[in-house]
Amino acid sequence: VFDLVATAFDGTTFDLDPDPQMSLRYATPSGGRCPQARVVTLVVCGTRRFLAARVGSYAVSEQSLWDQMVTTLQPGTINFCDRNFFSMDRWRRAAATGAHLVWRVKNGAKSLPANVIATLPDGSHRVRLHESDAMLAARRKATGQPDAPRLKDIIARLVEFDVIVTDEAGKRRYSHFRVLTTLSDHDAYPATAVAQAYAERWQVELAYKTIKSTLRGTGRRLRGHTPDLAEQEVWGLLTVYNALIDLAVATAVDLGIDPDEISFTVVLRATRDHLLAAATATTGCPACGNRAIPDHQDLLTAIAAGPRNRTDRHRTSPRTAEKRQTEHTRKITYTITITETNLPKLTESTLT
After folding, report:
1. Pairing between strand 172-181 and 315-316?
2. Do 15 and 223 contact (CB within 8 A), yes or no?
3. SS3 (DSSP) at 280
């Protein structure tokens, strides 16, 4: 994206075995039936490979785990974040790593402590951000410094846009987005291009879906009966997932195609068959004693021969269990429209 490596932060949870020992480290959500581990990761959007991760209890917020990972950002990258992560302190620390940022923030005139300095020709806005009282109080509590001074104001660029999702029947759904970015040059990085780029954040959601549905299996809890075994299993899932993604990327490179075209299901099945064949080769065929050991290239060849993902399709699916009872996956088109902001504007006297 803009000649930068795209990355994204996000969090998810894993259901754990309801063993009494588990509650010593992992909290149970209100109304929940089992403890949960919370995981926050940094994903490379182009391959959906995990660069970094932190594991904690459900009682530990995503923001707290993010705070432990900010130093994994690097120059030459562009990072996407959902709206739950923004604060003045996190924005400043992330920008200080040298990575460019495109972060969603909450909608509403009072949700973002910012004032518009100028409206740019592409419809985006240059804004002055300041630390709100709530952000200051949260930072003081988190750092244990009750007298910490308020952070100085900083300048950022704001892009607001509507996404219209239209299905084959002509039914439309509107969503409003507000993103902050460090990409200040509106000529080099037009507002529409920034809005389109933010869609890459969804790659981290697809990575979580792949781990939970394809690799682990839908509706399954982790099997460990102690906190240490549960955490070990989380790291095991992330490690195996990365190893399989590496196989997908290696195959895509050999074929000269986008890694998105390689089906993770094909990679998983081919790898299982490869490992079974290797195990059989170790013990020998019961009938003839043959020990023909398959090599790594055989595995890549099997993956390349499998069905490909169709990357030209644009579809939407219901996200909640309730909606899945009445809605279904359908083809759609997306339309992005840059919009005006309702944030207050700075007057000339205020700027002075």
Report:
1. unpaired
2. no
3. helix
**What is the phi/psi pair of residue 186, to 5°?**
-75, -20
Residue type present at position 123:
G
b/e map of 310-330 (b: 16 or more CB within 10 Å)? eeeeeeeeeeeeeeeeeeeee
Give backbone dihedrals phi and psi of 9, rounded to 5 degrees, phi first: -100, 145
Burial of 272 (0-12, 13-18, 19+ CB in 10 A): exposed
> Each residue's pLDDT tens digit in the chain (352 positions)?
999 999 999 999 999 999 888 988 999 999 888 999 999 999 999 999 999 999 999 999 999 999 999 999 999 999 999 999 999 999 999 999 999 999 999 987 778 999 999 999 999 999 999 999 999 999 999 889 999 999 999 999 999 999 999 988 888 889 999 999 999 999 999 999 999 999 999 999 999 999 999 999 888 899 888 999 999 999 999 999 999 999 999 999 999 999 999 999 999 999 999 998 888 776 666 666 666 667 888 899 999 999 998 877 777 777 677 777 777 788 888 999 999 999 999 875 555 5
φ, ψ at 179 (rounded to 5°): -125, 140
What's the distance, Cα to Cα, between the start and end of the chain in Å?
Answer: 37
Q: What does DSSP say about strands 315-316 and 49-57: parallel, antiparallel, or unpaired?
A: unpaired
Q: What is the pTM of this model?
A: 0.89
Residues in the chain: 352
